[in-house]
Design goal:
alpha/beta; single chain; binds S-adenosyl-L-homocysteine
Length: 327
């Protein structure tokens, strides 16, 4: 705990980043995997205090993509070289298990060489099982914080850390490649809660860990809170790389949003995944988890050429394959 605090204060930052870079290189070489992110609905039945698409945000302009639009995104992404599609959305009751399974099957049929990742929140075990059987390979469900009191500060009472953890365990048992993770600098976060996050990650041993700074969204209860720091986010990426050497670790859009070249800094500290936005341009601004989200330049799927160059500039290389977890 004292050691973590010492590192979080920015001590030994360069050493930490160099070690993380070396460990990533040993396991994945200089490869950076790309995932096409399709934000297919911003309707949500939940009311998380930090999130701009929370149910209670009456200013959010809601949308859903049709199956055809989603398939069109995949088609476009495939042409650009993407071999993983991430379907992310709010917890939208319109998408029943039948609808989700139908969608997964269509993508599976049309793009058999691609990985399908879901990020659609908490479901019961049977639903997760059905999606898996329909052809989904991976599931992203950040635990958000491993401290129960902190969890209660970020979420309304109907959401619980124990259920979140139960979901993650179920996903893993079913056979998904599973992603957990948390925001950096979320209101109420301390070195102690972060310590618990790291302990939890070590126990869960997920295949992926999503870590990005908290960024306020002006129509949420946390609209006036301070954003997380890029420096600390990068430090935590490096720590997680050292803790879980084989993990797939995205340099997130949120990190790129709070700092110019933020994602490149993440890659330099052990990250090895980037998730460009593959949603139709017209809806990108509506998927406003937080303010000022970058989504039209090199961080977007069609900006791949520019991204390739900037990634090469720091000694990495974008790889166009599924980018599965390596044992
Ligand atoms: N509904 C899905 C997907 C959520 S959006 C789910 O429950 O998993 C994906 C992630 O965005 C969330 O897990 C959260 O960690 C992050 N996020 C939400 N609001 C944010 C904010 N204001 N700043 C930074 N990240 C945010």
């Amino acid at each position: 705990m004292d050691q973590l605090l010492y590192l979080l204060e920015g001590n030994e930052a360069e050493y930490l980043r160099d070690r993380a870079w070396a460990v990533r290189s040993r396991i994945y070489g200089n490869a950076v995997y790309i995932r096409g992110l399709i934000e297919f609905t911003n309707h949500c039945r939940n009311n998380c205090y930090y999130c701009g698409i929370r149910r209670g945000n009456s200013h959010a302009v809601r949308y859903r993509l049709s199956d055809e639009e989603i398939m069109e995104c995949c088609h476009l992404g495939y042409g650009l070289g993407y071999r993983t599609f991430v379907l992310q959305g709010g917890e939208d009751p319109y998408y029943t298990d039948n609808r989700i399974c139908k969608l997964i099957k269509s993508i599976r049929d049309k793009f058999p060489d691609c990985a399908i990742t879901l990020s659609i929140g908490e479901k019961n075990r049977e639903s997760y099982q059905r999606y898996f059987e329909a052809g989904a390979d991976r599931y992203l469900l950040r635990h958000e914080t491993a401290d129960m009191t902190h969890y209660g500060k970020l979420h309304p009472p109907e959401l619980s850390l124990s259920n979140r953890m139960e979901c993650l365990r179920n996903l893993k048992e079913i056979g998904y490649q599973v992603g957990a993770g948390f925001m950096v600098g979320s209101p109420g976060q301390t070195a102690r809660t972060l310590y618990k996050d790291l302990q939890f990650l070590r126990e869960l041993d997920p295949h992926m860990v999503g870590i990005g700074p908290f960024i306020p969204q002006h129509d949420t209860p946390f609209g006036n809170c301070a954003a997380g720091k890029a420096e600390m986010t990068v430090t935590l990426l490096a720590i997680v790389r050292l803790l879980l050497p084989h993990v797939l670790l995205p340099a997130t859009t949120a990190l790129g949003t709070i700092e110019h070249q933020g994602r490149e800094r993440g890659l330099l500290a052990g990250a090895n995944v980037i998730m460009p936005n593959l949603s139709p341009k017209g809806v990108r601004k509506k998927y406003t988890l937080y303010d000022n989200k970058i989504c039209t330049g090199e961080e977007a799927a069609e900006g791949l050429e520019g991204l390739k160059k900037s990634v090469e500039g720091i000694g990495c290389k974008i790889v166009c394959d599924r980018g599965d977890y390596r044992l």
